[in-house]
Design goal:
Length: 431
């Protein structure tokens, strides 16, 4: 039976305890360290991402999704529907696994979904978190080898009697950037201009950019293969695809591991039957993605979750949008509470971005592998403020400008209010 998503989401909003007989299949497609500017649908004519471009054109494209700047905390936020200073996973290094109670796949499994975990997953045994397949997870999906998606495709062909959820997390385009020859070749002679203001290693940056474009094309091709398989199985019209990245990356500018926009911003695309296509400037968070997946499945989220369902936007109406996106950056290793490991807080609204460093730090300690990228440096207690409308790469600090004092105060108040629900100690005021 074809599932009418439009009717489903209307019912889901009107009746939070929805018990629909035929909820949609859901693919949560998670890129790994994606530059949010290196996609066709985000405006990069050099990129070759036709499958993603089509999903964005035929779905809802949210331009600004706030994400965590490091892989494991970001995925833990998607799973738990809570921010790192609430769920406790603040860096990638070995630590106690995420508490599995109330995580996304477990809630979907309880709703009757078959659940598949494909690719990157940090928390150990995936079955503990509500995944019903596969028996042995392939952790190297698409990482620098042409291994395909055969295991997932076999599973999809077998799941006929109930809706399904797929955690689709290939290790793409994560470093090392070594695209297969067929993805690298189209970019071998690509002209890469040196951006204004860039002072790093220009030749290394150009080489890194060409390799990254190839990796992005590889990611796009793998997602295209999945979409074609869904068409072949007759499942595409019953399936919602949610695409995002765990965190950002850049070959030139400060990104992963820092509070800069290229590290803490991702596009979000939601594509599926009954969804009204459009591009939205609304500010949304990772916790909102979890809330939206649950709403699509007709699942009531556990109490106290901060996420807001984006389903109204998907059906063509006005939905929730945050006035501020807030976040935190932590050390890459070490024991302690989130407050102990905090490097900086950050907040933005539709135009302005504030950084509140707590420690003296250089991004070289936070972003291994970004050899050609410029550094982000900060001094404890010295804030930075940027006008993203005129300075999207955050190069001109306006924190000392008296004309910006009111906006700076509003952003600082917002990020401290966001931090406080965790119950941790106040990270201290800026100078």
């Amino acid at each position: 039976m074809r599932r009418a998503l439009a009717a489903l989401v209307v019912a889901a909003l009107a009746h939070p305890t929805l018990r629909a007989d035929d909820p949609p299949n859901i693919v949560l497609a998670i890129a790994d360290d994606l530059d949010p500017t290196h996609l066709g649908f985000t405006g990069d004519a050099r990129a070759h991402t036709p499958n993603l471009d089509r999903l964005a054109a035929e779905g809802v494209y949210f331009t600004t999704l706030g994400v965590e700047p490091v892989c494991r905390p970001s995925l833990a936020t998607l799973l738990s529907g809570r921010w790192p200073h609430q769920h406790g996973i603040v860096h990638n290094q070995p630590a106690a696994p995420l508490v599995p109670a109330g995580v996304l796949p477990e809630l979907l499994r309880a709703r009757g979904y078959a659940t598949f975990c494909g690719g990157k997953f940090w928390e150990g045994e995936h079955a503990r978190y509500g995944f019903t397949a596969p028996e042995t997870r392939d952790e190297t999906f698409a990482r620098n080898k042409d291994i395909g998606q055969d295991e997932l495709f076999r599973w999809l062909a077998e799941v006929k009697d109930r809706p399904w959820f797929v955690w689709w997390a290939p290790v793409l385009p994560h470093v090392p950037h070594r695209p297969l020859a067929r993805f690298a070749k189209p970019f071998e002679t690509l002209e890469i201009p040196v951006p204004a203001g860039y002072t790093g290693d220009a030749e290394r940056m150009r080489a890194d950019e060409r390799a990254l474009y190839g990796m992005d094309a590889w990611l796009d091709a793998e997602l295209g293969r999945l979409v074609r398989k869904l068409d072949e199985l007759g499942e595409r019209d019953d399936t919602v695809i949610v695409f995002l990245s765990d965190n950002g990356w850049s070959s030139a500018w400060p990104s992963k591991g820092t509070p800069r926009e290229l590290g803490v911003r991702s596009p979000l695309v939601v594509n599926g039957p009954g969804i009204a296509p459009r591009k939205l400037e609304a500010l949304v968070e990772l916790v909102d993605v979890s809330a939206t997946v649950l709403a699509l499945a007709g699942v009531e989220p556990p109490p106290g979750r901060p996420g807001q369902s984006l389903v109204p936007w998907l059906r063509g109406e006005a939905g929730p949008s945050r006035e501020f996106l807030c976040g935190a950056v932590y050390r890459r290793s070490g024991a302690g509470t989130p407050a102990d490991l905090l490097v900086a807080l950050h907040a933005r609204d539709a135009r302005w971005k504030l950084e509140l460093p707590r420690a003296d730090i250089d991004s070289a300690a936070l972003t291994p592998g970004a050899v050609a990228a410029m550094s982000w440096r900060a001094r404890a207690g010295v804030p930075a403020l940027f006008d993203l409308a005129s300075d999207p790469l955050e190069q001109r600090d306006l924190a000392a400008d008296p004309a910006s004092a009111e906006r700076r105060a509003a952003l600082e108040s917002a990020v401290r209010a966001w931090w406080s629900p965790s119950g941790v100690s106040d990270p201290g005021a800026s100078r």
